[in-house]
């Protein structure tokens, strides 16, 4: 019996039906469309069984599946090595076309190249689309075609191009939903995937604070942030809808979204930054990399309340306020002289909004080793940061329950640590 001719739309970090570029184009196919998600063992095998991000992905997929069931369709969810899954699907179906949105991380690029080679060998046509950014790859470059490595000129060019397009087109595929493949696939439980429900949850995004974002964003006790970042990371929210809205509401908030694309383009253009300093001149720094000091930083027991509150918030919730992220990152790299890769890896394990390009970019910014980074001699004083941004200690007391019972002394004295850091950097920077 002949196999049914099918088009696949492959979900990755775009977990929504609304304003999804690749899905929009897939549904224009002359073949019925099966929406697919693959839990990739190459990624899952490195995660704890109660990983909160896997729980969130599963929850988001369940919502998509429920929406599809209302129109007589469903989501096909597979688990395994991605290449093996695709080979099995090509055996099971007569796959004519595969549509998916681009991912710009090194692992994803290599994976997608391998998948496209298999599809081509099967005479299956693959189509890729820009979806998670407004401008991708080489769309924002200097006059000579080279990538920007400083944020401000990148932002200026980004805005120049965006204003010519405003509003960026959105993709409503609702009137094509009848082209989804009519079949009820079994939706797996978390346990069937090999995971368990996490007690840490992703919060709903909230945009009501954006109008005065620039006035409140630095004060962690207010907790008046959008909680957008996990939703952007996994694509439960369209970047086009958000940017079109932000452009009219708040320039400072929009700038943060442009930073996101800046770091994505840096990662795409300079993939070495995943593990290496962007500025190779900093390769000679002699880091202390003391494991006991690192453990105290991880557990939030450094004796610096702002640092400790931030790390405890991260460990308990998967979130950390952006101002506090800068303080804790600077403390690790400058006060303790532990190289940024250690902190980046810990954040990768804990952050609900973990995004490789932003995490690497911001850690190198804090360490002074990245593009357009803070200068090496800029060393945040955690006590001054606390007085400026949590003067009444509201944020600190929320996360350090024992604070008023006689909190411990700082593990390292600030003035000494600052002098040591500057001297170490000076000695290590290659001429």
UniProtKB/TrEMBL annotation:
UniProt keywords (A-Z) are: Chromophore, FAD, Flavoprotein, Lyase
Q: Which GO terms describe its biological process?
A: nucleobase-containing compound metabolic process; response to stress
InterPro entries membership: Crypto/Photolyase_FAD-like_sf, Crypto/Photolyase_N_sf, Cryptochr/Photolyase_FAD-bd, Cryptochrome/DNA_photolyase_1, DNA_photolyase_1_CS_C, DNA_photolyase_N, Rossmann-like_a/b/a_fold
| Molecular function via GO | deoxyribodipyrimidine photo-lyase activity; DNA binding; FAD binding
Binding of FAD: at which residues?
213, 225-229, 253, 256-263, 353-355
List, separated by semicolons, the cofactors it needs. Answer: FAD; (6R)-5,10-methylene-5,6,7,8-tetrahydrofolate
* Keyword Lipid biosynthesis in annotation: no
- Does the keyword field hold Ribosomal protein? no
Q: At which residues is there a site annotated Electron transfer via tryptophanyl radical?
A: 287, 340, 363
Domain (Photolyase/cryptochrome alpha/beta): residue spans on this chain = 5-134
Co-factor binding comment:
Binds 1 FAD per subunit.
Q: Out of the domains of life, which is the source?
A: Bacteria
Matches recorded under Pfam families: DNA_photolyase, FAD_binding_7
> Which family is this protein grouped under?
Belongs to the DNA photolyase family.
Q: What is this protein called?
A: Deoxyribodipyrimidine photo-lyase
Q: Which organism is this entry from? A: Flavobacterium urumqiense
């Amino acid at each position: 019996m002949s196999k049914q001719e099918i088009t696949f739309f492959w979900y990755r970090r775009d977990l929504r039906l609304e304003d999804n570029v690749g899905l929009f184009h897939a549904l224009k196919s002359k073949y019925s469309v099966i929406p697919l998600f693959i839990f990739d063992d190459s990624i899952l095998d490195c995660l704890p069984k109660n990983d909160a991000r896997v729980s969130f992905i599963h929850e988001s997929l369940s919502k998509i599946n429920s929406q599809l069931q209302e129109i007589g369709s469903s989501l096909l969810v597979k688990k395994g090595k991605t290449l093996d899954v695709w080979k099995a699907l090509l055996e099971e179906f007569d796959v004519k076309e595969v549509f998916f949105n681009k991912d710009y991380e090194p692992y994803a690029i290599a994976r997608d190249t391998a998948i496209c080679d298999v599809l081509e060998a099967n005479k299956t046509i693959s189509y890729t689309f820009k979806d998670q950014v407004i401008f991708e790859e080489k769309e924002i470059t200097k006059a000579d075609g080279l990538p920007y490595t400083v944020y401000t000129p990148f932002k200026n060019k980004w805005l120049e191009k965006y204003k010519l397009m405003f509003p960026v087109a959105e993709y409503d595929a609702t009137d094509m939903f009848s082209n989804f493949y009519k079949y009820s696939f079994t939706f797996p439980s978390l346990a069937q995937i090999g995971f368990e429900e996490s007690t840490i949850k992703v919060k709903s995004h909230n945009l009501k604070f954006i109008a005065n974002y620039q006035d409140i964003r630095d004060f962690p006790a207010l907790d008046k942030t959008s909680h957008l970042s996990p939703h952007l990371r996994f694509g439960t929210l369209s970047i086009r809808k958000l940017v079109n809205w932000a452009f009219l509401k708040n320039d400072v908030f929009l700038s943060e979204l442009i930073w996101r694309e800046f770091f994505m383009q840096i990662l795409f253009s300079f993939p070495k930054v995943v593990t290496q300093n962007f500025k190779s001149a900093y390769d000679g720094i002699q880091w202390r990399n003391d494991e006991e000091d690192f453990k105290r930083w991880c557990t939030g027991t450094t004796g610096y309340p702002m640092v400790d509150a931030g790390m405890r918030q991260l460990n308990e919730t998967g979130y950390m306020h952006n101002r506090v992220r800068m303080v804790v990152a600077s403390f690790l790299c400058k006060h303790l002289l532990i190289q940024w890769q250690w902190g980046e890896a810990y954040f990768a394990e804990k952050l609900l909004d973990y995004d490789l390009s932003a995490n690497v970019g911001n850690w190198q910014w804090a360490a002074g080793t990245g593009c357009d980074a803070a200068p090496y001699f800029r060393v945040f004083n955690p006590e001054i940061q606390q007085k400026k941004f949590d003067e009444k200690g509201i944020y600190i007391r929320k996360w350090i329950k024992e604070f008023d019972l006689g909190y411990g002394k700082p593990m390292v004295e600030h003035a000494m640590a600052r002098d040591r850091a500057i001297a170490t950097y000076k000695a290590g920077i290659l001429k």
